[in-house]
Design goal:
347 residues; seven-stranded mixed β-sheet; globular; six-stranded parallel β-sheet; 23% helix
């Protein structure tokens, strides 16, 4: 709602305090303030109207009190949560951005954000795809999948590939990249609906519901009788232990995430690490920000895949900024089917 002073009301999502254990909706507070629809005089900031917000598992780590140095800082209690999003420029003091530009990058969990370091924003090049795709398949999760599979795993045609949390924002793409490479691909997920998506929508060769498997090691042996060449790790814990026993000699593991551990106050141990030695496994962690230079080539490749319908993408879109806390919490209970996105406003 506009005011007489050229200001707009601005609904915001604020972190109440550092979170211990499983996060709750009450850990985030919905507040309202006002925002002036002009950047400060002489500033190089950019004022944006947020259209889509991205809910991503890594955000859970930013809700915790900083104890050890990480690749990204913790959120500040009492301040607006930040994350990836898609936005439209309202006003700009920066020479690279103009009012009306569509951009993607890190923004605030609020209706309007004043971005003081807009160099991190990317102008949206292609608008013949849903804008929400720039929070997922054409954004951070997409580049994560691309880098993790192609750069870290060094895949070869005919190899066997296992993807955990395979129906999520990253996993669904890894499986499809692997199929395009001519690999045999199996994924796991936490419901029959998601398992059916993997097999019937994303083209995985096989998939299983990990919640229904009493013995994960046996489940993987059933799917990979001759072993796993490549594991794309999103889960950790018991799943990693089972995978290590089923890896082939000289197998590769790309460690993207460990979502089973994010809400635990005491991390689970991994007991089969000796397999890394005996099987000469290469296991490497990675983060997307280290590979931003690959984004242009990634974008051109994947936009062509989308246009040629070689890749499909499933989103779980929830509408309204007030629903953002619920959407984020839902990630850790597996409520989302596909990439979780919050629609704030339509372009």
């Amino acid at each position: 709602m506009a005011t007489e002073m050229g200001e707009m009301s601005n609904v915001r999502i604020v972190l109440k305090d550092y979170v211990v254990g499983y996060p709750k909706e009450e850990d985030m507070i919905i507040t309202s303030s006002t925002v002036r629809l002009k950047v400060p005089e002489g500033s190089t900031a950019v004022l944006v109207k947020n259209l889509y917000l991205s809910c991503d598992p890594y955000m859970r780590g930013r809700m915790s009190k900083p104890i050890t140095k990480s690749y990204t800082d913790s959120f500040t209690p009492g301040s607006v949560i930040i994350g990836y999003g898609v936005a439209k420029v309202v006003d700009s003091g920066h020479p690279d951005f103009s009012a009306g530009d569509l951009v993607s990058g890190v923004t605030g969990w609020e209706e309007y954000s004043l971005i003081t370091a807009p160099e991190g924003l990317t102008k949206i090049k292609y608008t013949d795809v849903p804008l929400s795709y720039y929070t997922g398949i054409l954004g951070m999760p997409g580049l994560t999948a691309y880098v993790g599979f192609h750069e870290i795993c060094s895949p070869k045609k005919g190899e066997t590939v296992y993807v955990s949390a395979a129906s999520g924002a990253v996993g669904q793409l890894v499986g499809q990249f692997a199929k395009l490479m001519g690999c045999y691909v199996v994924g796991s997920a936490g419901s029959e609906e998601k398992v059916n998506l993997l097999k019937n929508k994303f083209g995985f060769d096989d998939a299983f519901n990990y919640k229904e498997e009493k013995d994960l090691t046996a489940a993987l042996k059933r799917c990979f009788p001759d072993g796993i060449d490549i594991y794309f790790e999103n889960v950790g814990g018991r799943m990693l232990d089972a995978v290590l026993l089923n890896m082939k000699n000289h197998g590769r593991i790309a460690v993207c995430g460990l979502i089973s551990q994010y809400n635990l106050t005491q991390q689970e141990g991994v007991h089969n690490l000796f397999c890394v030695v005996t099987k000469r496994i290469r296991m490497q962690g990675f983060i997307e920000p280290d590979h931003k230079h690959l984004y242009p080539q990634f974008l051109e490749l994947v936009i062509q895949y989308i246009r040629e319908k070689k890749i499909v993408y499933v989103e779980d879109v929830i509408e309204g900024i007030e629903q953002a806390p619920s959407a984020l919490i839902g990630l850790f209970a597996g409520r989302n089917v596909g990439k979780q996105v919050v629609l704030i406003a339509r372009d």
